[in-house]
Amino acid sequence: MNRHLISAGDLSKDDALLILDTAEELARVSERSIKKLPTLRGRTVVNLFFEDSTRTRISFEAAAKRLSADVINFSAKGSSVSKGESLKDTALTLEAMGADAVVIRHGSSGAPHRLATWVRGSVVNAGDGTHEHPTQALLDAFSMRRRLGGLDGRRITIVGDVLHSRVARSNVLLLATLGADVTLVAPPTLLPVSVGSWPCEVSYDLDAVLPKSDAVMMLRVQKERMNAAYFPSEREYSRRYGLDRDRFAKMPDEAIVMHPGPMNRGMEIAAEVADSPRSTIVEQVANGVTIRMAVLYLLLGGETVA
Amino acid sequence: MIIKNVRVLGGEPVDIRVEDGLIAEIGPGLSGGEVVDGRGAIALPGLVDLHTHLREPGREDAETVLTGTQSAARGGYTAVHAMANTSPVADTAGVVEQVWRLGREHGHCDVQPVGAVTVGLEGGRLAELGAMADSAARVRVFSDDGKCVSDAVLMRRALEYVKAFDGVVAQHAQEPRLTEGAQMNEGVVSGRLGLTGWPAVAEEAIIARDCLLAAHVGSRLHVCHVSTAGSVEIIRWAKSKGWNVTAEVTPHHLLLTDDLVEHSPVGAYNPIYKVNPPLRTRADVEALRAALADGTIDVVATDHAPHPVEDKETEWSAAAMGMIGLETALSVVQEAMVDTGLLDWAGVAERMSAAPARIGRLPGHGLALGAGAPANITLYDPSVRTPVDPSGYASKSRNTPYEGMTLPGRVVATFLRGRPTVLEGKLT
Question: Which positions bind substrate (chain B) (predicted)?
Answer without folding.
Answer: 53-55, 85, 276, 307
